[in-house]
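Tutorial handout. Part one gives the primary structure; part two gives the three-dimensional structure as tokens.
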Amino acid sequence: AQFVESGGGLVQPGGSLRLSCTVSGFDFNSFTMNWYRQAPGKERERVAWITSGGSVENYADSVKGRFFISRNNDRKTVYLQMNDLKPDDTAVYYCNSLTYWGRGTQVTVSS
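Part two.
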């Protein structure tokens, strides 16, 4: 299986980014997909997840109301729309399902 994240970058506080994770070699349509993040010196934190059909989404309290997860099962891609970004959102963001992980994409929020 291959999970490939993209869309990270440098953004000013209050800005937005949209992350994508495209999956191959995995039964994408059958499983919940997760977005995690890990900041330097901190534990990896699950920030959002979405069920296989996309009907249920959940968010960590730290991002609720600012981040939105979605998926396109035809494209085998999961997205994370991140709005009103804060410096504390700076981290490497990973997509995951079961035991599979991508390599991550860096998000830096700084003025």
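Part three, for discussion. The chain is about 0% helix and 50% strand. The two ends are 37 Å apart (CA to CA).
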